[in-house]
Amino acid sequence: MRGDALRLPDVNADIRIPSEDDREQIARVLATSLNFPVENALARSPTFPLQDMRCAYVDDRVVATAAESPFTQWFGGNDLACSGVWGVATEPERRGAGLASACLGRLMDDARRRGTPLTALYPAVIEPYRRLGYELAGTYDEHRIALDVLPAIDTHDLPPIEVADAERDQDEIMACYARWLAGRNGTIEPDAPFWRARLIERPWDEWHRAVVARDDGTITGFAIFTRVPDTSGHLSFGFGLKCTMFVAEDDRTLRALLAYVSSYRGLGRWLGWSGPPNDPMTLLVGTQAVTVADRYRWMLRILDVRGALEGR
Length: 312
Ligand SMILES: CC(C)(COP(=O)(O)OP(=O)(O)OC[C@H]1O[C@@H](n2cnc3c(N)ncnc32)[C@H](O)[C@@H]1OP(=O)(O)O)[C@@H](O)C(=O)NCCC(=O)NCCS
Prior knowledge:
Helix content: 25-40%
Structural class: alpha+beta
Bound molecules: coenzyme A
Distance between the termini: 19 Å
Order of helices and strands: EHHEEEHEHEEHEHEEEHEEH
Largest sheet: 13 strands, mixed
Number of domains: 2
Low-confidence stretches: none
Radius of gyration: 21 Å
CATH class of the largest domain: Alpha Beta
Number of strands: 13
Strand content: 35-45%
Number of helices: 8
């Protein structure tokens, strides 16, 4: 709990919602600051949700950004609106002038005004966010298991796995996810445009794939993953399956999805998925075969204390 009020420095820049003409400039600030290829940022730029972004302008040029995704965060079966912050970036030459804080502060004010009680983010650096009232609140682990040690599965009579079709499957995928996360704590639920652009279709990522398990006509699980290079095997073009989502509502679906990922064995080296440290999937095998490949602590800030407590 903060003992004093938040005070943001006065900044010498105009902070506003960007316009259509600014997409390329935003992409360049993000690529430079967040260290990813500018072609990827430009390819993604048509999908930037401008209304959910705040930019700092100096001489009418974008020099800093902050963006949010309107998420729902689940706590013990209760859902709370949560502003999921991403794309916080300031051009290297403009840092230390309060620009990132000003952009994010504007997002926070607007979220509070529309009644969103929570905001959360994955910090690359802690201090700027701590100053704005965020604090470390939870852990997101990326678990990994070698495909070779997955249990052998008899696929007879299990739900078939097929490539997801956004048009046909999106509503059902979202419904399946909503049922699955009602029993989880702190898990995020994206909105429909996020599901479509960033999870199911992801047109800028040629390694991406989304598959669904359909049991008796209903989607009961799905996996959304990308292939990442892993040359630790006997061939130089091996890869791992890194899942953004690995969701199974029941044991039959879990076994069907595991059999599917096992079929990548050989060039495919491992399955990676994210979840809390005590994720039930870590019980898959009786040995220490599940490792933590990455651990990312996330930060939370309560924007509306009454709303947050009543909502839980
Ligand atoms: C992190 C980043 C967005 C900060 O931008 P900025 O415009 O310089 O931030 P602000 O001026 O609003 O800084 C706010 C406070 O955080 C501090 N801060 C900024 N960057 C910091 C860093 N890398 N490490 C520690 N503290 C930092 C500032 O000193 C300032 O505190 P102060 O006023 O007490 O000095 C910018 O450095 C950046 O683009 N970094 C690369 C991309 C990145 O890591 N983005 C965050 C992803 S979660």
